[in-house]
Amino acid sequence: MATQRITDFLATRRPEGPCLIVDLDVVRDNFHGFRKALPDSAIFYAVKANPAPEILSLLASLGSNFDCASVAEVEMALAAGASADRISYGNTIKKERDIARAHGLGVSLFAVDCVEEVEKVARAAPGARVFCRVLTDGAGAEWPLSRKFGCVPVMAIDVLEAAHRLGLVATGVSFHVGSQQTNTEAWDGALADAAFVFQTLAERGIFLTLVNMGGGFPTRYLKDVPTAEAYGRSIFDALRRHFGNHLPETIIEPGRGMVGDAGVIKAEVVLVSRKSATDENRWVYLDIGKFGGLAETMDEAIRYPIVTGRDDDQKEPCILAGPTCDSADVLYEKMPYPLPITLTVGDEVLIKGTGAYTTTYASVAFNGIEPLRAYII
């Protein structure tokens, strides 16, 4: 359920329209949970998950570092109080002028996954540190991140050798096991690949020092997920297994796991209808949909917990959709969502676990609908 602070906020402020409310106390608790679970790994919060200034300022004050995907995010992290040495430019797809801008702001750690990207960094940020992203299969993740980013481990060796030749500091290897990764063992194979790259380059006189273990740490939606401690134990065991007593410096990049369960979206039922007298499923239309912040319902990958004031009543499967004049704006149809049969127009619903990847996934003004408003409390 929503935290008491969120419940009190909604009861007293009564904000109109769909909106996200984020409880900073939950973010603080999550940060300390990651620090306890992986005490030897530096935390680089994935800014893209939720870049609200209040969240960034809180995390900066707690000692977090920041994984940024653009110059704009670098500037946000700096404005929140982070120094440039606490920022990584983690996107492997960067314009050369953006690399130069970030480097001019003091950022010296960049992600790459091909020789062409290395060449851009060498020209725009001479002497910078680079880590090469390797491919992982993402098995066990509800929102996989394979194929678009990374290269095979053998190619990573060539990429880091090229970086070394061009005067960059070949620092290490990164990977991402997929967002909302529910398998605590998912890091094992990726760490084996990282160790292979480390060993091969060491034999060639290039000594890597860093493994960026990425994000993937889940938030709870409809199903329970392992604790941060469970991930920490599994990851530490894998590090020992593949690196022995010579453990590298490690960093993690939690985004969803840091802020997902801190947020709740308040929405309203706009319409309840059927398509025919014999239609088995009711259609329930909310005032928020895929274009308003719930883009991760694409392919029904993320199934958010939805709470109503009528949850004690009998439920039946419903097709859940958003309000826009676009036929793609359907949230759950392949697997209809159980909602109270008494749910009706004007009822408010709470969509839990929406602190990550909602406000920044919302369109600017599709159908004239304003972007998703957020209240950080």
TrEMBL record:
GO cellular component terms listed in the entry, alphabetical order: cytoplasm
Task: Indicate whether Zinc-finger appears among the record's keywords.
Answer: no
Q: Which CDD domains match?
A: PLPDE_III_ODC
First-tier enzyme category under EC? lyase
Where is the signal peptide, in residue numbers? none
Spell out the PANTHER family in the cross-references: ARGININE/DIAMINOPIMELATE/ORNITHINE DECARBOXYLASE, ORNITHINE DECARBOXYLASE 1-RELATED
Q: What is this protein called?
A: ornithine decarboxylase
Organism of origin: Aureimonas fodinaquatilis
